[in-house]
Design goal:
Layout: H1 2-17, H2 32-48, E1 52-59, H3 69-73, H4 79-88, H5 93-105, H6 113-125, E2 129-131, E3 140-142, H7 153-174, E4 203-205, E5 208-215, H8 220-237, E6 250-254
Antiparallel strand pairs: 1-5, 1-6, 2-3, 4-5
Amino acid sequence: CFGTQLRLHAAPRLHQRAVPGMYGSGLNKGSTDIGHLHLIALLEYAQTNKLSVAALFVDISSAFASMSREIVNANWNTDQEFIDTCASKGLDRNKALQFLELLHSEPIWNDTVHDQHIRTMIIQMHTHTWSSFEYLSGVIETYRGCLAGTPLADMLFCFLMVWFLDITHRDALSEDLIHKLPFEEDNYYGYQKDQVNLEAHSISFVDDCAFPIIGTSTQIIPKIIRWTQIIQSNATMIGLKLNYKIGKTQPIIKLRG
C-alpha cells in the first residue's frame, strides 16, 4: 500500500524524463501494441524506399534482479568513486565522466523539498533489504535489484532504462548512426516539422528493446557492429548484462540493393 502511494508521487518524474520510444509502464501513452506498430512502420518505410534495415533486439539478463540501485537514484559516495568503478570494468574514464555530466545536467528529481523527500524514501526502501525462502533457514541481504511484481519495480527499472537509452541515443547520434526520416509537408494530420520526431530511435517496453538500423546494403553490417559496441559499453557502465544466447540479443536483417 505504501509503495503504491509512493509510486503516485514518483511516476510524474519518470513520465517527464522518459525518452521517445519508451512504452512500458504507460510511458508515452504506449503499450506493446504501439511498440509493435512503431517498429512495423519503420520496416515498411525502409521497404518503400528500397533501403536495407535491421532490428537489433536486446535482451537483458535477470533485468530486475540485477538493477543497479545506485544508478537509479544517482546515489554514490563521490563522482570519483563512480568513475573508478567504471574504469575497473575496462571502460574509458572520459565515457564515465560524460555520463555523470548527463546525470547532473538533466536530473530526474528536482531540488524541491517534495521531490527530495520522495527520492529519499525510495532510497531507504531499497537499502539494507533482506529476502527469505520457505523451508530455508536464515535470510539473504540484497544490495542490487528489485522484486518484480511489487508496486515500484517496473518504475525503478524504467528510471535505469532512461539513462541507458538516453546515453546510447546520444552516442549513436554523434556517430551518425541514427537514420532520419524525411518530413512530408502535406501530411494527413497537418503536423508541422517541429511537432514530430523524425529520428528512427529505439523502441522499448521496460526491459525489452529494439534498435532500428536503416541504411544502404553496404552500410548496414558496419552499423550493426558499431551499434552493438555502443550498447554493450553503456550496459556495462550502468550495471546491465546483455543476454547473447541464441534468440536473445541479435539482429534481424533485410538487405536490399
